[in-house]
Predict the structure.
Amino acid sequence: MTKSEAKTRLAKLRQVIDQYRYDYHVLDKSTISEAALDSLKHELHQLEEQFPDLITPDSPSQRVAGQPLPAFKKVTHATRMSSLVDVFSFDELREWDERWKKLRPRQTTDYLVDLKLDGLAMTLVYERGLFHQAATRGDGFVGEDVTQNIKTIEAVPLHLRTSALPLSIRQQVQSGRVEIRGEVVMLKNDFQALNKRQTSAGLPTYANPRNVAAGSIRQLDPQVTAGRKLDFYAWELVTDLGQATLWSAHKLMRKMGIKVNPKSRLGQTLEEIAKFHSQMGRQRQSLPFWIDGVVVKINNRSLYQDLGLIGKTPRAAVAWKFSAEQATTVVEDIVVQVGRTGAITPVARLRPIQVAGTTVARATLHNADEIARLDLQIGDTVVIQKAGDIIPEVVEVLVKLRPAGAKLWHMPSHCPVCRRPLRRKSGEAIHYCTNTACPARHRENLYHLVSKSALDIDGLGPSTIDLLVEEGLIHEPADLWKLKTGDVVGLPLFADKKAENLISGITARREVTFERFLFGLGIRHVGRETARVLAQHFQTYERLCQASLDDLERASDVGVVVAKSIYEFFQNKKTRAIADRLARVIIIKTVRASSGGPLRGKSVVVTGTLPTLSREEIEEHIRRAGGKATGSVSKKTSYVVVGAEPGSKAERAKTLGVPILNETQFRRLLKL
């Protein structure tokens, strides 16, 4: 998977449809299908969490961390758009089922089963029944506003139908905020027709419909998007309209004029789900859209929310993927790439071949041991496997087809970039470049530092980093904040205005949260969640730098391996000096201890637009005060903070007797 593909998956979508399209898109069962649920979100998180050493400038995780186009505004999601855990067998499905039942042994429920379409996750917001905004998933917390482009998708209604709704729900929809999430897709027939037009015009054809859809949504000209004939399928009603189950939410969305999959169904047992999974596997080639599995969710909405998240994924849902698609091709060469932690990863360069709707020309080989296990040589015919959007891998060598000129491959003894010796630690399979100042590691770390999940610097992508490094303007992270407009003006493609915008984007990130700073350092094994835990535990950069191994291991969810990696980073004179110099040129917001705050042990819900605080800022205040920011109102909710144009959460809080605060009262409570 390339970085471009990853970025386009997170491209922001806007969705609107005229009222008269309701009958065609919602009631015509021959054309309706359920949305692709969380396929892209999950895959991107899986790549980032499971294969951190493979993150490169063109990797999916880097694309997730990329910056929105200047023409698109950022949108903070009311509730996090989470990922899904993948399973690949009935046994793994049963293990998932047993895990949640151990947490709630007295609870019983049936299951909502959907098709897992290959599309782009999207959230739609309706205000007083009228289409208001569409946003992409982004990093799960912040996406991009693509409202105007989504308006070109005929499957998205411009206003919600309310005539078939019960009176109480109708009033909520007509007076409040409704959020619906789903998937933007391009149907197979539309994709084929588009490629025919490309061929007739003498233009290159597209590899797969998902990439076309993503690229179309990111067009600054909505007319281009309109010409691509995209579609939308809903899979979640985020707003609490009184629905007790996910199945009833699907019915409500359909009544409101929103497409849901006619093939989605309820399953009483895992055996029923397995039968449905098998049926869809046999029918997938004849379906009008691409799918790579089914999504299984606990149908009881209260139980679903009560189980919460584990890391970035809900405990109450899982994606049961189909068996990975395979194909055969020839390994034309084996090269190595250097990751930001110095990890050396061998990659097979393949004779290009179509697999699962994508042209594949590279496949990961993981490490030298894996190449030896496969008995792989350059020139071999191999079986490659691609499960959905997971990076393709070589699973078998067809030795009987080995040519006479096949060549053995050996891991190089020195880094291909800096020529320093490679090292392999005892008990590990990965080779590492020993040079902490390796140019390849250096650039990868800079790409990571400025990415969306780290310092999130507008206008500073990999190509600009490359240019600044090659011109000798930056050598390490701290140098970015020493740049002046005059340093950049005159560089290729950098006129006065673009140079000013770049410096403004860097200056705007002179003050950052501790967790973003820490994640941006690129310490091995320290992802976003670990960075957040460390920031809360140590509160300041100075305390973390001075922490012993024992101190680090006492932090929640930080094990021996992670603690050792952090400790070694700060004990290494070179990496510590680079981090210190960065810490001196920017302002790191101090994290206040949360254990004894006024919101200790309390859950707080935020709804509506507050006068001076963004949703991200207010949720940070809640965490610092010891509380937990949640997305739904229940009897267990401690407070609901209400701003302008609140949704149904405010009404539900009144019904349940949950205390309601405005921003002034919230500030007074926290003494802000």
The chain has 27 helices and 26 strands.
